[in-house]
Amino acid sequence: MGMITGAGVHGLMMLGGGIFRYPNDLFKPFWKYPLYYNSFHKYAYQGLFKNEFEKLTFSIDEAGGPTNISGKEILKNKLQMEMGYSKWVDVAILLGMVVLYRLLFLGFIKTVEKIKPIVTTFMSAPPKQTTQVMVNPSTAPLVRL
């Protein structure tokens, strides 16, 4: 069950993390606001792309002649990444998520350890009380002729 749940959460994080669609194209109520900002893929990809493209300059040939475009412009305009903070903030957010999720799952495990015996005692049926009728074996049964 843990493997299935982990794979499902990972799949949701991939879908909402901006891998398959740009962030502005995500459906707002579910995919953008809770899932996109909680997805660890978002911060991993933003940190990776900022590390690779932020300092680069690309030349493009247009009708007016060759011009240059910076990596920041590509990240901000084309890939729709948040450029208000550095790649190290993305790394810090990822490390914070690791610590938070570890503590969260530790809390789940400890809660289940405490509650499981209580639930099993309430869910188990009380022992049935049986009544036994003792027949005196020394007396013979009444026989009619």
TrEMBL record:
Family from the record: Belongs to the ABC transporter superfamily. ABCG family. Eye pigment precursor importer (TC 3.A.1.204) subfamily.
Gene responsible for this protein: ABCG15_3
Residue stretches spanning the membrane: 88-109
Keywords from the UniProt entry: Membrane, Transmembrane, Transmembrane helix, Transport
Superkingdom classification of source: Eukaryota
Protein name, as recorded: Abc transporter g family member 15
